[in-house]
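Note to self: keep these together.
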Amino acid sequence: MMAAGKAAESGASVVIIDRNRTLGRKLLITGKGRCNITQAEFDSREFIKKIGKNGKFLFSSFSQFGPEEVIKFFEEKGLKTKIERGGRVFPISDKAEDVLNILKEYLKKNNVQMLLGREVFGFKISKGKVESVKLKEEDIFADKFILAVGGKAYPITGSAGDGYIWAKEMGHIIVNPEPSLVPVKIKENWIKDLQGLSLKNIQINIFQNGKKQDCRFGEMLFTHFGISGPIILDASKKIGELLKNGEVIIEIDLKPALDLLQLDKRLQRDFEDNRKKDFKNYLPELLPQKMIETFLKLSGIDPHQKLHFITKEERKKILHLLKEMKMTVGSLLGFDQAIVTSGGVNLKEVDSKTMQSRKIKNLYFAGEILDLDGPTGGYNLQICWSTGYAAGMHAGNTKSS
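Structure:
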């Protein structure tokens, strides 16, 4: 939608072809239906650091249409925004539908035509250029083509990975698509007892072969199959990479503000002050209520043991459970639960300023089809806006070659 609107605004006659019967199906489910339109990080270098090794590709498109310009774009069209915790930018209304309506109006104002509910079956190439796009009923001819078809995440919204097949057929290298920002399955059965419990201000440490590979601080959620929530989703790409090399262990640090020694001193002091209290009755001071039964089972300590009689060895167990609650990763959930796709069209084959293919003269790319993905918090939608804007502006410029 951004690419089409900008191309039309730049002077081109534009048609959107979409297999869905309505526009913006995926946009409507972003940010749990609230649409986290961007991240309020206005220093491009800091923003791009969060994208990882491929982030540098975005410098040029960000200079054309970065987070500040995105907020301005929507606000000038009547969408008031707010900045929430972690720099997440939302519409004040908390409705993704309001974001979609702005884009629909933008397309309408610039006379973008729609071919909805129409499936694409491939492209006809002639002399190094795309000549037409093949539909069931007809071929559509054009001077330029923008592939903005998403990745493989949430295929129910229409993004089934067709774009990778077409790009490959046109000579592009595809970096293997993997699910990203995706929940994690855990092998231990006790996880099920904690379903629905959200933990805030905790740290996860990720290990392989006894070596710490990554850590995250923030909020996580237990589910019936494992774990989810912001820090788990953000770590899922790294976890997926590690799984290819063997077993991955995640440790939850429930008390990251205290080291082992500090926490041990606190426990000793508490045990002395509450010497006649049952262990079970003391735990609400340390843990959420929903976690207590599971914690008791994992510790193996008698729930009715008086704190005064807890041994040094038992205290050590409690300490390590609070700081290193171990879970074994089973797998990542698949594309149907992933927020974005990691991988896609190799960036070396795309001009970072114009989004133009280096293989096919009149082909452009935008959004998730590219080998670009970031963490939660508006980063991925910003990638879509920036690359869509750049592709639309340069493809739509009728004076360009």
